[in-house]
């Protein structure tokens, strides 16, 4: 997976950033939808999920039923799950220890949007043991 790329439509990127701002001091989260590949994935849409974590200021958790419904909707629209996203309103763009402990989809992207004066979106592929940073590229939609 080294050298993987996550391509996001400009509107998908903007949706994540705006959701992060709207979340205030709580993390927002959701599902990335598009085309999943072993070394390159394309995100065409994002689907926000409710953050049901016990401490939403420092972690995120998706309700399993809501996550399943989102995945069914993505697949019904002819797309695949590319991965997941969440924000770090007060933290770094890198995955936290909690992010590592809770990652469960090997080969999928985990995008993180952080806000430190300006929004920054980074992404990592989960190997099953660790996160590997991937290149984030935008395309016009």
UniProtKB/TrEMBL annotation:
<feature type="domain" description="MPN">
    <location>
        <begin position="6"/>
        <end position="130"/>
    </location>
</feature>
<dbReference type="GO" id="GO:0006508">
    <property type="term" value="P:proteolysis"/>
</dbReference>
<dbReference type="InterPro" id="IPR028090">
    <property type="entry name" value="JAB_dom_prok"/>
</dbReference>
<protein>
    <submittedName>
        <fullName>M67 family peptidase</fullName>
    </submittedName>
</protein>
<dbReference type="InterPro" id="IPR053551">
    <property type="entry name" value="Metalloprotease_DSAMP"/>
</dbReference>
<keyword id="KW-0482">Metalloprotease</keyword>
<dbReference type="InterPro" id="IPR000555">
    <property type="entry name" value="JAMM/MPN+_dom"/>
</dbReference>
<keyword id="KW-0479">Metal-binding</keyword>
<keyword id="KW-0378">Hydrolase</keyword>
<keyword id="KW-0645">Protease</keyword>
<dbReference type="GO" id="GO:0008270">
    <property type="term" value="F:zinc ion binding"/>
</dbReference>
<keyword id="KW-0862">Zinc</keyword>
<dbReference type="InterPro" id="IPR051929">
    <property type="entry name" value="VirAsm_ModProt"/>
</dbReference>
<dbReference type="Pfam" id="PF14464">
    <property type="entry name" value="Prok-JAB"/>
</dbReference>
<dbReference type="InterPro" id="IPR037518">
    <property type="entry name" value="MPN"/>
</dbReference>
<dbReference type="GO" id="GO:0008235">
    <property type="term" value="F:metalloexopeptidase activity"/>
</dbReference>
């Amino acid at each position: 997976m080294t050298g993987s790329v996550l391509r996001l439509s400009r509107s998908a990127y903007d949706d994540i950033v705006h959701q992060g701002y709207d979340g205030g001091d709580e993390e927002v989260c959701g599902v990335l939808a598009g085309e999943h590949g072993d070394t390159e994935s394309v995100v065409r849409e994002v689907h926000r999920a409710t953050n049901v974590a016990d401490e939403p200021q420092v972690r995120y958790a998706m309700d399993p039923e809501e996550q399943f419904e989102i995945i069914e909707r993505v697949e019904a629209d002819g797309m695949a799950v590319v991965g997941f996203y969440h924000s770090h309103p007060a933290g770094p763009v890198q995955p936290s220890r909690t992010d590592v402990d809770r990652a469960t989809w090997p080969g999928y992207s985990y995008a993180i949007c952080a806000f430190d004066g300006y929004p920054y979106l980074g992404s990592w592929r989960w190997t099953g043991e660790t996160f590997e940073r991937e290149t984030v590229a935008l395309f016009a939609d």
